[in-house]
Amino acid sequence: MHGARRVITFCLMTAVLPTILVIIPLYLRHSVYTDIVYSVAESDVLEVVNGISSVFCQAHSLRMNSTFSAFQVSGTPELSPINKKHIKLKKSMKLPDDTLEYWGFYLPQGSRVNLSVCARWDGAHILVVKGDKTLRNCGNPKPGTTGEPHLAKGQGQVLVTYEGRAQEMGHFLDSENKENVEDLKNADDEIPYLMTTEKSTTTEDRKLRHHRKRAGNTRKKRDTLDSERRQKLMKVLLEDDDANHDFNHVREKRRADVLPNHKLDGGIAHGGNAFAFVDKNDSSISSFESNLLECHDGKILLHKEFAPSEFCKNFKYLENGNHLQTTHDVLADGYYYYIFYSDNDFNTNDIHSIFDIYKPTYQYGNYTTACINSTDCTFPIKFFSDDMVVVEVPTRDGIEHESDDITFLVSTCHPRMAVYAIFPVTVLLLILSCAFL
């Protein structure tokens, strides 16, 4: 019995335990503390802690194919409620009918987003939702869904502002031509005066667009019959010194006159959760739009259709022209998405937008090491320290496609050889101890 025990002990100390002691460091080095690849986007701030240990790593290196800033700090950094960094993004989109494009941001509490946006054609909409890290995939449209979407609760207000003012039409028209103007207004858009709410206006516009699609031939005949009247009106308008634009621009100004042209503290607030009213008995709303609203039901902060402009061709128009502005004060940390989509059956819509984002900055007053605007940097790690590395990815302007925003950050743990050397030394000691059995 004593001999069998000695044989078992010998096998454990010369075969089993040495094998375990050899496998453990290999597993730690190549599985637990191997290189970690992070997928990051512009303006991201992240703590790089995965695959890093103050015991098994003597240094921590980072590399990326674009510049970044990194700080080695003790403990989690805190947000500054006073100091905010300004991020300016210019985005352009081309949206065919029933398509969308979105831009998402992680916004901590206290952030503010000012958005200026314009569209070339009718049917441009903006939808602001609060979601998860990955925007929910709404799948295929579900025809027949016409219910009114539910808005997010407790998320504050999104203010809507109209910058600029539409020019006044001339007052030179005689009574007959004035009557033609009124008839043209009613025949074209049937837009009520200022007492009509903007919600019903956008709904009527959408109904009219879908009606035009279903009755295209009828519309062409009507345009032919009215062409003489339109030409007569256009001739009179062109005779005025102030009316030096073409008829399409006059029509656009008439549409803009419906919008409020007075400002209260920089703009008109529609109550942060404004959205375009949808009649439950209305079947003119597209299945694409109804599915989109149903998909984000309960998370919608703003749903808005904005008027088109023939001068919305570049970002310069957003500095001087009549366009929509929104202001969003963030009350809770989270991921927020600005979804743009077009509901125009005839034209691919050109949309230009400028985001001015003001985000609270992190305080790195207690950092020990830092590298600024680098593509590769290394931080030493003290034994049993609680230091961590925080990475900030700068904002790059002019990116037009979401896939271009993604950059890969590689985090590498440099092994602490003194710790790993313990394992092979222990194997040798076990084998040598067998001589005394």
TrEMBL record:
Keywords: Membrane, Transmembrane, Transmembrane helix. The keyword Membrane applies. The keyword Lipid metabolism does not apply. It comes from the Eukaryota. Residues 327-434 form the E3 ubiquitin-protein ligase APD1-4 middle domain. The chain crosses the membrane at residues 7-28, 417-436. Residues 65-135 form the E3 ubiquitin-protein ligase APD1-4 N-terminal domain. Residues 208-222 have a biased composition (Basic residues). InterPro entries: APD1-4_M, APD1-4_N. This is E3 ubiquitin-protein ligase APD1-4 middle domain-containing protein. It comes from Clastoptera arizonana.
